[in-house]
Amino acid sequence: MGEQFDVSVPENINLGSYYLDVNLDQGRGDKTAILHGDKTYSFLDLWHLTNRVGNVLRHAGVTPGDRVLLVLEDSPEWMAAWFATMKVGGVGAHAYTYLPRGDYEYLFDLVEPRVVVTDGATIGRLRDALAGYGDTIKILVAGADGSDLRDGEIALDEMVAAASDELVVEPTRGDDLAFWNFSGGTTGKPKGVPHMHRSGVIAFESFNKVLSFNPDDIVLRVPKLFFHYSRDLGFLFAIRSGAAVILTGQRTTPALVFDLIAKFRPTVLINVPTMMRAMIRTPVEDRADLSCLRRSMSSGEMLSAALNEEWVDTFGSEVVNRFGSAESAMGYLCNRPGKVVPGSSGTVTPLAEVKLVDGDGNEVAQGEPGLLMAHCPTAGRYYVGEVEKSRTTFPGDNWVNTGDMFTRDENDYFWYVGRADDMVKVSGIWVSPLEIERGLQAHDDVKEAAAMGLKDSDGLIKITAFIVMGDGVNITSETPELLKQFCKTSLAPYKFPSAIEFMDELPKTGPGKIDRLMLRTQKEI
Length: 525
What we know:
Layout (H helix, E strand, L loop, with lengths): L14 H11 L6 E5 L2 E4 H17 L7 E5 L4 H12 L3 E4 L6 H11 L3 E5 L3 H8 L7 E5 L10 E3 H7 L14 E7 L7 E6 H15 L6 E4 L6 H13 L3 E4 L6 H11 L3 E4 L1 H8 L14 E4 L6 H11 L3 E6 L6 E4 L12 E2 L4 E5 L12 E6 L11 H7 L5 E10 L5 E6 L4 E3 L2 E3 L1 H9 L4 E10 L5 E9 L9 H12 L8 E4 L13 H8 L2
Helix pairs in contact: 1-2, 1-3, 1-8, 2-3, 2-6, 4-5, 10-11
């Protein structure tokens, strides 16, 4: 069990005010809140923009409980629209800006937004998907004037310019819905998990006990704001703490990350393992100096010990790995600064409780793999429209069935084994494909690897590895066998891929994770 302490959540609490307005109350109105290209926004600037957007949302018909869906590039307007949605009592949701039409149609049907906020760079991808909704959804477009828009589309900038910057904040209660997180986008259609205003307060207080920001921090995120880990740590928690946030609408590449570090000299970098690996493999002459960083954080996918240590050797900054979920709305496992155990997911976070159980729900012995159940006061209660899946994932009393397998060591550090539904039996023993991935990625010539159990022509499950080799590496007929033998030297003898396929690149999701569903769909025999 993590550290327990009382969090005083007022009966009436509004997350828009909780995260943003506190900075004006503490005299930080003139302090920089946003660094966006060549522009800076103070906390007072962000407050004015938020209030104006809030009045626009009310004018567009948003009433308490209505959903507002954000589908736009990272920008001050994204941040203001999120805060404004909270302030007027709406419920915030968000989506990636490069989805196909069918995925947007799915999200519109699931979320049923009163308003969609998009931008000039993204509206073109939404128009076909929005065509069937008529005037039931109001469409606000940032960064576009009337001449760029079609019937039914509203220029947000013009509306904001004409709006008042005085906004009456809706007196929401702690148990009122405030935002949705999305889960399962890498294994199927995203599932919506509604959360309450009180959850945002508790999640921040838990985070703040371990990884607090300070007003002098400048925070750079690698994942975009639509990714809830990035939204919370790199935006909401940073702003609440008075830190400055770096924003860019460009697609994230190692070159862009290094450019932003050189320009703004951030003190905190919020990263994902895929980008960490790409940054390490960037030629020295193309890197920026990372000595400005006081902390690096990682989440979203497993951070191996080898990659963690390679990052520290290359750039010097310790990496704090964190594990949570859309369902929990907070991290429930986290390494501690100065006490990082590379390869582990850390210990239980404040206000959380976890247990590892077997298939019958009984707790497993130390060192044995078990399904991780997490108890969080911020836990969601259901997936929207998914009754049966909700019963499995949310058994009640703030418990979440994470679907993840872990072991716990003698020091109460937790070690990720893999997804429970991805485990494969080899020679009668359960094996995690993720463990084989780690073994392969330790090879100097391997750039990326993904492993999974696939059916062969006889219907038997075999572990297949999909590998991207490093630049300039020559692949020969002997390479697959050499990689299998390499696995056998670092893992148990039976833990190696039965088959290896080489690819130019692995498919990725919006947050930069390996898209295992797409890979499985493409490769299932």
